[in-house]
Amino acid sequence: QAKGQGRNTWQWYRGQRVEKNRQTLALRQDLYTALKEQQFEMHYQPLVDSLSGRLRSVEALVRWRHPSRGMVSPCEFIPLAEQTGQIIPLGRWILQQACRDMVDFSARTGHDLPVAVNISSLQFLRDGFLEDVKHTLAESGLSPMLLELEVTESVLLDGAEPVIELMQTLKAKGIRVALDDFGTGFSSLSYLRDLPTHRVKLDRSFIQAIETDHRMAAIVQAVITMAHNMDMSVVAEGIESLELQQDLARRHCDLLQGNYFARPMSLADLKVLPSLLPGNRSA
Ligand code: C2E
Ligand code: MG
Ligand code: MG
Ligand code: MG
């Protein structure tokens, strides 16, 4: 009897897995037409000064409005796009759209707003990436000073030299590079010595743990201090409360990003966003 139940449970799990695989395959297939059919859109999430609450820049985040499944999370489809190679044309479109949108934002509001664009490691390391960036800037008319690229430690998996070289070239052109999801990968810290990055971003999983986990708080504090000593600034992601905002401001974290200030939003909503978001302590 117990044996029979075990088998049923096993079959249930197996059924779930088969169903999940089927959905993944279908989604991967749908990616091929999604770009042509204009199912992607860009949203923008504010980054604010930790002390004043002033809008300092935005992060561009892609969204997929799937015709039958509704909004699909980038956590779900970016890895699929990386597997199929679709990340190359998709990544190019993301960069173009973000640059055009920021030019539009400046024209409508009279304010220049820096934009951080997530770049997949595959896209960053591919021959021709630098040309793509230069071409996109020229075509959109966005100042290179307003573009920041976000990469993760996984760009270093096949060796640091080409990465350092590319980052130096980008820097010489005025384009800055931030290290995203800092600390969540498996890299050693020593690579930081040679990488010409200007900013590190602390993942939401680190930030949201500091209120209950004093060891995590120590890591966050150490990263902030280390980054400052290396002339880098620090962004904390995932700020969802006033308490967390105040805690990070006390720790001298430079910029904050999170639903407490604003969720990712359309360009239209960004254009009418007040420059001062909640969390202004000096008012
Ligand atoms: P990421 O680059 O670390 O982006 C930050 C993620 O944290 C975003 O999720 C953002 O919406 C979320 N977030 C920020 N503050 C809060 C908060 O207070 N609470 C909660 N619950 N979430 C918050 P999103 O947009 O779902 O993106 C997830 C990941 O997908 C990104 O992580 C990035 O790795 C990838 N991604 C998103 N857009 C792009 C893109 O345009 N290109 C590439 N290559 N990857 C992208
Ligand atoms: Mg990012
Ligand atoms: Mg991040
Ligand atoms: Mg993250």
From TrEMBL:
Residues 24-278 form the EAL domain. It comes from the Bacteria. This is EAL domain-containing protein. It comes from Marinobacter orientalis.
